[in-house]
Design brief:
Oligomer: single chain
Distance between the termini: 52 Å
Helix content: under 10%
Low-confidence stretches: 1-49, 60-65
Largest sheet: 11 strands, antiparallel
Structural class: mainly beta
Number of strands: 21
């Protein structure tokens, strides 16, 4: 059972460490609500209570928006030392997340007065296999959008110094499908913003299909028009498609994308992904998974189109859930040094204009 609730008074921007206790949505780091410090499996049991609290705080109780999460606009500029009542966000308390800490701070912001600093510190034993460290912010379960529904996400992000430059698995944002109790296997994010050797790259995951060009074993494939480099993973019934990368990203960074697929096609637009060393980056993403070939993703960075992805996106395996969901924050395999990311201006909306705020771009996207 959960511990007794403890309500902390609002005291402006505060720090909250996952090692000391959950920084979840309806406590929101001690500012407004009570922290029940639930275990992950208990968390899902009371999600209805959390969403009712969210609805009351946001003034949405009884409105249609909660009956249709896809129509609900979520946003947070992290201005109040708390997850805002309209954000639908929380920090999940589980073993991996206890490597993380959350700080609402005003030292480094994209806009406004404050931003969210997320840090992971070493927790995994040296040489451990399969251990990871996270400080990720989650969408409330009952506010998730159906898997086949298009939805826009926006956020600003900055890599705090020092930016990791080692060959290692780092993620800063990921989109996944819910995994039900009858699903078998481990399902990677259908869209992942990743980094290795200090270089950003974006991947799309889907079920395994025969390649259009077989693996060469000689590094990242040079694919013909209409085909995309892919890392085949038949042992997990998955394949990972390389859809965008830093201009200097090469086989030395990740040689596993050594085949080509025409099941998932990435069209780049001449605007590369920014470098982690470039300071604040404003991302806008259209997410619509479709493992049947109807998927559609668009990625914008700093107001410029980076890539459009169409075709097979995501997983269609038995036992998977009905919804997609988004997590952001530093996530890595265990490492010996702290790693910090800063986030600001989170938005989720069915309307492109709420995220891109550019009528011409939004018109082009919908055309």
């Amino acid at each position: 059972m959960a511990r007794a609730a403890v309500v902390r008074p609002f005291a402006g921007p505060v720090k909250a460490s996952a090692q000391a206790g959950a920084c979840n949505f309806y406590l929101a780091c001690g500012a407004k609500f009570a922290n029940l410090s639930l275990k992950p499996k208990e968390e899902d049991v009371v999600v209805g209570v959390r969403v009712l609290v969210w609805a009351l705080a946001a003034g949405l109780a009884g409105q249609v928006a909660l009956a249709n999460p896809a129509a609900t606009v979520l946003r947070d500029g992290f201005e109040t030392g708390d997850f805002g009542p309209e954000s639908g966000l929380y920090y999940r308390d589980n073993a991996e997340q206890r490597a993380g800490s959350v700080e609402f701070q005003s030292d480094d912001v994209r806009s406004g007065r404050a931003a969210l600093r997320l840090t992971v510190r070493p927790l995994c034993p040296a040489g451990s296999d399969g251990c990871s460290e996270r400080a990720e912010i989650w969408e409330e379960t009952a506010l998730r959008v159906p898997y086949d529904t298009p939805v826009w996400y926006g956020f600003s992000v900055k890599f705090a110094d020092p930016v990791p430059t080692d060959e290692h698995r780092y993620l800063i944002a990921q989109w996944k499908r819910e995994i039900g109790p009858e699903a078998e296997g481990d399902f990677s994010p259908y869209l992942g913003f990743r980094m290795t050797n200090g270089r950003l790259f974006v991947t799309v995951e889907t079920n395994h299909h025969a390649p259009s060009v077989p693996p060469t074993g000689t590094g990242i494939a040079t694919c013909p028009a209409g085909h995309t480099p892919v890392w085949l993973r038949p042992e997990t019934n998955q394949m990972r498609v390389l859809v965008a990368a830093d201009p200097s990203f090469s086989s030395a960074d990740d040689p596993r994308f050594d085949a080509c697929t025409d099941e998932t096609v990435a069209e780049t637009h001449g605007n590369p992904l920014p470098s982690p060393q470039d300071g604040w980056i404003d991302f806008a993403i259209l997410s619509r998974p479709g493992p049947d070939g109807s998927g559609h993703i668009k990625v914008f960075a700093n107001g410029l189109p980076v890539v459009t992805v169409k075709g097979r996106i995501g997983h269609g395996d038995f036992g998977l859930g009905e919804n997609q969901y988004f997590k952001f924050g530093p996530y890595r395999d265990g490492a010996p040094e702290p790693w910090t990311m800063i986030y600001d201006n989170f938005v989720r909306s069915p309307d492109c204009m709420d995220v891109l705020r550019d009528e011409a771009l939004c018109t082009a996207v919908s055309g």
